Amino acid sequence: MQKNKLKLILASASPRRKELLAWSYLPFEIVVSNVEEKTTFIDPSEVVVDLASQKAISVSESLDAKSLVIGADTIVVSEGKILGKPDDKEDARMMLQNLSNKEHDVFTGVCFILGDRKHSFYSKTIVSFETIDTTLLDHYIDTGESLDKAGSYGIQGAALGFIKQINGSYSNVVGLPVNQVIKELSDFLDVDYKGLNEIFN
Question: CB of 160 within 8 A of CB of 56?
């Protein structure tokens, strides 16, 4: 069992990931990665794991061996195409119209770095959209919420009006599969949840 005290570090500027990780009730600090998000992978699961790993490695290089760094990356995939953040409101409108009345996948990759140890995994959630009413879409686009979101929507906001069903982790769609993070952390450090509290508190 890992008995030494560790610091938990979230390598993300995302306020959504900060809020989600807080629901683990484990204390953590934020150190933002400045790595350029580029990958040579094509498969969505490999893309998110690679980008999450890049972020975690970048931050861990500036910290000591007592810091456990969590990197994460989330993408939306529709009909085999990775959807990034829209360029503007019209791009967001087109993206959402293409998602209307269809299923799409949301992948989040997560990477832990502790010293020379590394562990990565991903979570996939299937999201089904209703046919989006044009007026409802207009209202949503006017909020500006879509502009900083992959796939042009955030499930935790006004886009809930589009969503018919989700199959998988809700928090994964927001940006971090909290339940899986806790489980994988426990496995990584070979402790139960109580043990995690003892290590990080």
Answer: no
